[in-house]
Amino acid sequence: MCSPSGPTRFFFSIIVVLGLSGLAVAQRAASDEFGPVMTAYLGYLNNEQEVVDDRASRKEITVAYYRRNSNRIQALRQMAMRLVRQSDNDYVPELEAVTVDELRTIFEHPPKPALFRPNEVIANKFRYLGAVRVGDTFYLFARLDPYEQAELLQHDTRGKTPPESSSATGQRIGEASTRSRRAVPR
Question: Is-contact 139 122, C-beta < 8 A?
């Protein structure tokens, strides 16, 4: 095999350096656009993609599994970027991306996707964010934080009679527990 001449080698190295500097500029632009939380989340998704790529290269997973998980990661990336850009807030909720046949993994009784409405709370656990089509159609949900869940449960039970079931201490579910003060003799 013949080796390239000096000027050809120099020209080739200039092209490589310019290409790599272009990648560095693109990465800096993404980190300038987003705050530390979103940048960390994008880094997490990149790491997840590397794991999937590595497992595929070692033939540990099928092509269909690789394709679906790569598409899921891409859907999560798109939704996270959309949320942060729309809210102008560097906050990413815990996101779940599932296909129709995976709805049972997050819902005991999966609802029909045709009935989903954006920002609708489903099963007092998830807020439906929308569908993203990357290969498959992924339905994206944000897991409600415990405070949002408690507020929804309190709102749901406010107009109803208290449930008949009680906890082991005889206290009704959802009631706040308080201890009576101990009287100290003088």
Answer: no
Site of tokens 């709805």 = 103
Both tokens assigned to 80 = 């996270």
CA distance 79 to 86: 10
Domain count, the chain: 1
CA atoms of 140 and 56, how far apart (whole Å): 25
Q: Is residue 147 part of a domain?
A: yes
With H, G, I as helix, E, B as strand and everything else as coil, classify residue 11. Answer: helix
Measured at the CA of 52, the angle between CA 50 and CA 54, to 5 degrees, comes to 65
Task: Report the alpha-carbon distance of residue 82 to residue 42 in Å, rounded.
Answer: 13
Contact 126, 142 (CB under 8 A): yes
Tell me the β-bridge partners of 177.
none
Structural domain for 37, as ranges:
26-158
Q: Does 113 reside within a domain?
A: yes
| pLDDT tens by residue, 34-93 | 889 999 999 999 999 999 999 999 999 999 999 999 999 999 999 999 999 998 888 888
Closest CA to 75 of 143, 145, 130: 130
96 and 73 Cβ atoms separated by less than 8 Å: no
